[in-house]
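The records we work with from here on pair a chain with its fold. Here is one such record, which you should read through line by line:
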Amino acid sequence: AVSRGYYQLLLSHRLVQAARDTLEEARSFEARTQLLVKNGEAAQADLIKASSQVAFLEQALSVAGLEAQMANTALASLWTRDVQMPLVLVDVFDQPVTPPLEGPPDAAATEPFLRRPEFALLEAQHRGLQADSRRARADLLPQGSIVFEYGVDSIHPWIRDRGYAGIFNLSIPVFDWFKARNASRQFQLQAQGLEFSRLIAERAFSKEYWDALERVKRSSAQLSMTQAQVKLSEDNLRISRLRYEGGEGAALDVVAAQSQLAQARTNHYTNLANYWNARADLEVASGR
């Protein structure tokens, strides 16, 4: 919960910054269009398109700011009641992204989910039930004991009064035999139930591990594509503005390029957050 809240807050901050940058670009284009309209070099319809884009991006920035505030309160509520306090976090989104190493082809590397502490707990419970079953089964057997005593059997410390005694006790279970057998059988059934629980846990944790590993691989592979989309969208916006200011393009092309750039940045940061969430899930699924 902490890691997901942490990455969600980082994603919210990045989306707010991306919305703010796009809004600044839209306002700059709106101001430029106003000058062109004032000088008679652009139509009023171009100014309307630019102004509507600014209004749309202002609303998008407001929504992103609200989501960032909610992410901040959700994360802070995990350890404090002062949820309105702005959290200062280390931005891991700037760290290099590398796919997980495959490792050597042995059992420990191909099935790292078996190192999870849940399996150690199940194994300890299984051994405890087996020990209880053996203890209950021991009550089915006759119990014998021998006691040998040697010493002075007198109120005076005289050697001639020394003696010895041997006592043999034998206890044969008769009335408690069925009770002990049922108790042993009960512990055995509980141990078998834990074995089935372990098999179910192996399948469930195996699915979690391989799903997390695949999400890490896919997210890391998509990061290069989303980065390229952001770069191409920035170039498209720059070219669209140059063409419009040169009288060769339409204002609608600039507005569309601004929307495309905002969406490209959102896709990139969302995919980046998905990558780090998948890495956190992979660490948990690997028992680390």
About this structure: The first helix runs from residue 2 to 38. Helices lie at 2-38, 44-76, 107-110, 117-138, 177-245, 251-285. The beta strands are 143-152, 162-171.
